Amino acid sequence: MEIHPSLDRFIRRLVEAGSRDGQARLHIRGNSPAERRMIASLFHSMAAPPGKRMISVDCGEMPVAYTEALFFGFVPGFMGWGRTQRHGYLLGAQGATLYLDEVGRLDPDFQTRFSRFLEENRFRLLGSEEETESRFHLISASGTDLSLHVDMGKFSGDLYFRLSQVILDLPPLSSRTGELDHIIRFFLEEIGRIEGIPPGPLSPEAHRLLMEYDFPGDLEELFQILRVALSEANGATITPDHLAPFSPVLRHLSPLSSAKSRSAGLQDLPGIEEIEILNHVNHHGHITNAQCRRILKVDRFRASYLLKKLDAMGILTCVGRGRSAYYTRQATVLS
């Protein structure tokens, strides 16, 4: 797997330092959830023993009422939750890596307990009087600067101190043009591994388009474009058609090599949310407002705005009215 040499050296130094006690601590700050997770996966592949899987947790999606049970686990019969013992994330990550994305959204009441565990490496399963020990590498990540949350009293300063022994800042893609080629290859290999599709080579034309595109949606947009391209190419050479299988987007994308079009049409390019919608339509043929809300985790007004925007751009078309309405590509109408 090819990554930028400076990032490779950084991760290897961190792995070497963490191998002494099996408890490396890294906090990643960056806008792209995809890149944050991929760096965590890369660290895990270098640091963890073969066969050990990384425990990945999205703290923003965690039900607050079950946070303790999910992290600590519980004994049989505790609160009527089950007849068998349940191991939580802390035991599941033993000897490996625990990755906490959007750690800033971790339940405030739980932050103190988690910080105490990081100090002692010991905890109790819910309903048990016996202490259990667990040691693992911990990688946390956030799209915002948690130190500002600490200053505002919205995040535990003690927990932030324990999470941020080492901080890796991921600047926007627009300021990392020298790394773009490495990032593209890294994303293609990682997406291919996740999807089970061997990544084909980029054609010179496709490579040129990617290198010249501004990516207003940053790394998340690059990731989504490559994910669609890899699925469409299915192991063959990736061409400009694979970069954007929906032709109206391709018509916007292709002319970006000229200075004139750079200043003319970027505001009309689909962003991260629109690309997620189009990716769903490519796989399922259509999308409803309810499906859009579920995928993007937005309200019905935002979903309606995005769908109508794609309709106005000529990429999707609306079929039906009211609750039975759905959006599909213009060449497709469901019977």
Walk me through this protein's architecture:
By secondary structure, the protein is of the alpha/beta class. It folds into three domains: 5-170, 3-Layer(aba) Sandwich (Rossmann fold), CATH 3.40.50; 172-269, Helicase, Ruva Protein, domain 3; 273-335, Orthogonal Bundle (Arc Repressor Mutant, subunit A). The chain is built from 16 helices and twelve strands. The chain has helices spanning 5-18, 33-47, 67-72, 89-92, 108-120, 146-151, 157-163, 180-195, 204-212, 218-233, 240-243, 247-253, 259-264, 272-284, 289-296, 300-312; strands at 25-30, 55-58, 73-74, 86-87, 97-101, 122-124, 131-133, 137-142, 167-170, 286-287, 316-319, 326-329. The strands form four sheets. A five-stranded parallel sheet has the order 2-5-8-1-9. A three-stranded antiparallel sheet has the order 10-12-11. A hairpin with a 6-residue loop joins β6 (122-124) and β7 (131-133). α10 (218-233) runs parallel beside α14 and α15 (289-296) packs across α16 (300-312). The longest helix is centred in the middle third of the chain and has 16 residues, at 180-195. The radius of gyration is 22 Å and the shape is globular. Residues 245-269 have low confidence and may be disordered.
